[in-house]
Amino acid sequence: MSDKTLDQLDAQIATVRTKLDAQIRDLVEVIVNDIPTFAQKNVRRAFIESVDQVEEKSDDEIADMKRKLSEFSSELVKKYRTLLLDNLDAWIGPDVPLDTGKTLDANPAISQTLRTIATDVEAFIVELGITPLDIVYKTPAYFINGKYAPGMIEKYWAALADLRALEAEHAAAVRDAKKARMAQRWDEN
Predict the structure, then answer these.
(1) Which domain holds residue 181?
(2) Which of 38, 168, 20, 31 is nearest to 89 (CA)?
(3) Are 73 and 36 in contact (CB under 8 A)?
(4) Cβ of 128: how many Cβ atoms within 10 Å?
(5) Domain assignment of residue 1, yes or no
(6) What is the 3-state secondary structure (H, E, C) of 116-182?
(7) Is position 133 within any domain?
(8) Is the dihedral of CA 16, 21, 22, 28 positive or negative?
(9) What letter does residue 55 receive in the DSSP assignment?
(10) 181 CB contacts (<8 Å, ≥6 apart)?
(11) Which of 59, 85, 133, 154 is the most exposed place for a label (fewest CB within 10 A)?
(12) Interval 162-183: pLDDT, tens
């Protein structure tokens, strides 16, 4: 049995949970701040690769495509900020496997959400009348606003492991306390 009381464990769990929530929010901001760059890069690449389809487009048509891309990117940022923040269980729920890497691939719900970023960009490319390319969204491996996603992801996995260890210790302490109460009841009756 742990030397820590249930109140101490509850306080530690709350502290780690608060830290983890802040890490997740910071990481989501890095991801959503990368989305406009990802969309612009891939729409531009698809435009250039579709030379036969776009060669006859006027400068005004190209400018209109870029305006639509800017609006689309803003919508994606809002959409994915909401999707990634509204369900914290997807980040820390009991079904999330532990990992130690620099990607979120081991988290099935979050990695699926991130994959849909590319799907949305591909659909937008089709809406523009351009042949889409096979694209995959990966968390940025460069600094965004002074923050480095791979390092943030490692800290997320470490904090999640800490949370799980504390939760296991708490569950064991609760079980031990129940067993002690049952032993006492047995002995008193």
Answers:
(1) 6-188
(2) 20
(3) yes
(4) 20
(5) no
(6) HHHHHHHHHHHHCCCCCCCCCCCCCCCEECCEEHHHHHHHHHHHHHHHHHHHHHHHHHHHHHHHHHH
(7) yes
(8) positive
(9) T
(10) none
(11) 59
(12) 999 999 999 999 999 999 999 9
Whole-angstrom Cα distance, residue 177 to residue 6? Answer: 9
pTM of the shown model: 0.89
Decide if 89 is inside a domain.
Answer: yes
The answer to whether residue 108 sits within a structural domain is: yes
Give the separation between CA 73 and CA 56, rounded to whole angstroms. 25
Alpha helices, H only, 50-58? 51-54
Question: Considering its fold, how many domains does the chain have in total?
Answer: 1
- What letter represents residue 168's amino acid? A
Q: Per residue in 99-133, pLDDT tens? A: 889 999 999 999 999 999 999 999 999 999 999 89
pLDDT tens-digit series, residues 63-105: 999 999 999 999 999 999 999 999 888 999 888 888 889 999 9
Take residue 23 and report the two structure tokens written for it.
């890490």
